[in-house]
Design brief:
The chain has 313 residues and is mainly beta. It folds into 2 domains: 136 residues, Lipocalin; 123 residues, no CATH class. Helix content is 5%, strand content 42%. The protein is built from 3 helices and 18 strands. The strands form 3 sheets. Strands 3-4-5-6-7-8-9-10 form an 8-stranded antiparallel barrel. Strands 15-16-14-13-12-11-18-17 form an 8-stranded antiparallel sheet. A two-stranded antiparallel ribbon has the order 1-2. Strand 3 and strand 4 form a beta hairpin. It comes from Exophiala mesophila. It holds the Pfam family HRI1.
Length: 313
């Protein structure tokens, strides 16, 4: 503490002077993120699962799993069985799973005050789920040096019906040789459309509830609605496009090929919607793969209204 004489002259200091206050921390929005955090937060994203391990067993892959996530965090995750059984409904296969909703990523220091580089925590809230309502899942994500990701968490093993530790290996789709953006898949345009509620009642399906996302050369959609017997039906589609039609994500002899805005789109043969090559049957995938969409655009498919809610070119 400083003290002064009667005329204001400084006489001296008692004790240690108080150090100046440190400048306030920068807001999180202006802080510079390390590249590994930017990699975790990069959206839109296209994720392909390469394997899953339960407990401490070796990994395997019995599905064709593709996840499309928009810039705002909406996602559609479809997991087709690699070898569906002929004559058996897709949704009755125990390894089939399809869902959509919102994803959110946080880092350790935001929750615990401790940081662990190259790791994050992801939460996936399911608005629509082929396994039932009210489902969400979460896992710890670990970024690998090659840009791929390991996800670790707990969920129900479809083979045992029990909650178990799982480890999933995620990568990206192969880059197309004709891609103008360089050696990686196209991530634009990104277009998201969702069904427009036909009733204010929460949880009531009525005409249907669905979402469809197109990111670059990939498109996936899911729709849940009541069938003629009043049973809840889950319909899914996956489409892919390549300049020469060689995209291996959905290629098969039974695939449906459609020309949209000069691109050759191929429908995955495991999709359980029925329609011709020129018209949407239940999910407006053909429509969403066209050009020039803007937020608020609407279309009606089989009595269900769909509205564009996100566009990023």
């Amino acid at each position: 503490m400083e003290f002064y004489g009667m005329s204001g002259e400084r006489l001296g200091t008692i004790g240690q002077p108080k150090p100046p206050s440190p400048p306030p921390p920068l807001p999180a929005t202006t802080a510079v993120l390390p590249q590994w955090k930017k990699d975790f937060l990069q959206k839109p994203s296209i994720s392909v699962r390469k394997g899953i391990a339960w407990g401490y067993n070796p990994p395997y892959e019995d599905t064709s799993t593709l996840v499309l996530t928009s810039h705002q965090g909406d996602f559609v995750d479809i997991r087709f069985p690699v070898t569906p059984e002929p004559g058996r409904p897709l949704t009755s296969n125990p390894v089939f799973w399809a869902f959509s909703g919102q994803s959110h990523t946080t880092f350790d220091e935001e929750a615990h005050g401790v940081t662990m580089p190259y790791s994050a925590h992801a939460v996936f809230n399911h608005d629509i789920d082929s396994k039932g309502p009210g489902i969400s899942d979460e896992g710890d994500m670990f970024l690998l040096p090659n840009g791929d990701c390991i996800e670790v968490g707990m969920m129900q093993n479809p083979s045992t019906g029990k909650e178990q530790l799982y480890k999933e290996y995620w990568t990206g789709p192969p880059a197309e040789s004709g891609n103008d953006d360089g050696p990686r898949p196209r991530r634009s345009p990104c277009v998201v459309a969702k069904t427009v509620a036909s009733t204010p009642e929460v949880g009531v399906v009525r005409n249907g509830r669905g979402a469809v996302i197109r990111i670059g050369d990939y498109c996936q959609g899911i729709l849940q609605r009541d069938d003629v017997n009043g049973q809840l039906l889950t319909l899914v589609e996956r489409w892919s496009s390549a300049p020469d039609g060689s995209n291996t994500a959905v290629r098969h002899a039974e695939s449906t090929v459609n020309e949209v805005s000069g691109a050759r789109w191929i429908k995955d043969w495991r999709s359980n919607t029925v329609g011709d090559m020129q018209h949407d049957s239940a999910i407006p995938s053909i429509w969403i793969c066209g050009d020039g969409h803007k937020v608020g655009d609407e279309t009606v498919v089989d009595g269900v209204t769909w509205r564009v809610v996100e566009v990023e070119n």
